[in-house]
């Protein structure tokens, strides 16, 4: 019964963190960051604001959701630590999920009270993404306790590990460039797609370079993702966790690129822009899962090698 309750709570916490990510994107895309003025955690210095504006509602709602999610993450971290602390990754993920959520909140508060440069604010989404991914992985570990999936039995070669570690690191860079596009208000700096403008190829000013830099980075991510997925299709069809994770990742990165193009074609449609943020969040979560599987493979290999040492020593004697 305890395990079932923990599963439900972990699932709800993961969804709450997803809402935090989308809420943050909504605040940025609607330019609602100053909806509560230079006041935090109060809104315009008041517990209950007297003047209600759409920007205030969006900003205040994001703060409330982030606060509730923070409490949920703290409870989940402690609960998981006590319930499945024997699983190697649990304590690390529990600590990271809460620490990065607090860090995300502090950066948001600092941006409101003192203001921050666009380059610093672009870190905000990436930090929230790490917290979300940690909660997501913690939830998967909780569901994994039933042993319906033996993750430790996976065998991952060095080429696949290179793809996994390289792509998730590069994906984080792409996420940063995308966040920088939003915070610099460069989403429509290039009125055409995939080129910046129909009459010229080379960008001519900073906002265009930021926009085209993000597009090129996303295109390279797609190419690398295709190569990794082809390798998974050839070598890992019998290992469903690896195979389907790459298939899902490829679909998500393609949806990410399609929605990125549609943002330009629809003149920054809000729902498409939020879908853009949703797809990258899900993609990073799946890549984080692949990373955990790769680390587990390393651990299992080292553990297996260590177990053979006493036998080797005995043979030499």
Automatic annotation (TrEMBL):
Membrane topology note: Multi-pass membrane protein
Q: Please tell me where heme binds in this chain.
A: 214, 276
Recorded GO cellular component terms are: plasma membrane
Q: EC number(s) of the enzyme? A: 1.17.99.9
- The residues forming the signal peptide are none
Q: Which cofactor does it need?
A: heme b
InterPro entries recorded = COX15/CtaA_fam, COX15/CtaA_HemeA_synthase, HemeA_Synthase_type1
| Name of the featured protein | Heme A synthase
Q: Which GO terms describe its biological process?
A: heme A biosynthetic process
Query: Which Pfam families does the entry link to?
Result: COX15-CtaA
Gene for this chain: ctaA
Q: In which pathway does it act?
A: Porphyrin-containing compound metabolism; heme A biosynthesis; heme A from heme O: step 1/1
List the source organism.
Parageobacillus thermoglucosidasius
